[in-house]
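Chapter review: from sequence to fold.
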Amino acid sequence: MKNKRLLTPSEAAAELGISLRTLYRWEEADKVHTVRTVGNQRRIPIEEVSRLRRQGKGQPGAERCALYARVSSIRQAQDGTLARQMERLKQAADARGYEVVALLSEQASALNEQRKGMRKLLTLIKAQAVEVILIEDPDRLVRFGFSYLEEACSWQGVRLEVCEPPKHLEPTEELVQDLLTIVTVFADKLYGHQAKGVRKLVQTALKECETEQAHGTSQQNDQAAP
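The token string follows.
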């Protein structure tokens, strides 16, 4: 009689679209049947993978997920922008079959290191209480260094998932946005209610620089043309 095909944990996890940590958690909860080889290696029958697929995601044992939403201004928090962002995250988590265990939303700058929601999220990561963190775009979580945070989360077996891929920006556009973010934070600290006027002045100056740079590039191209 031909032996049934057995999958390694990594192969089974890939087939199911889950992490190894989740697969082991399912095994501990008796939600997935595994067998042992002569060398005491864990294996999962292909029939067991098929059974779990038929059940579909969203069943008990699905990956635990934290949703994180953030807006920068009080106006966005009050006009429903923050609530709508969270609602979109809920829909995305449901479509992906995640078990939502934490809803974190806040109004704060991406450069604010004292964000309460962000600190709660880090606590969940440290405790390995989630397998997935779902956000709309990288800027919602951090303005700079997203790839470093992504790697650090992976050390704890946690994935950062982005619902919307970041828009491609030209280098000048990206520089303007980065500078505006930095100026906004420090203007708020230094000038309080007058910060809005400072931001407008800086934004106007940066746009003028951007226009001049674009004009200079155009002239260089004209001169280089035969």
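Two observations follow directly from the output. The first strand starts at residue 6 and ends at 7. The mean pLDDT is 77.
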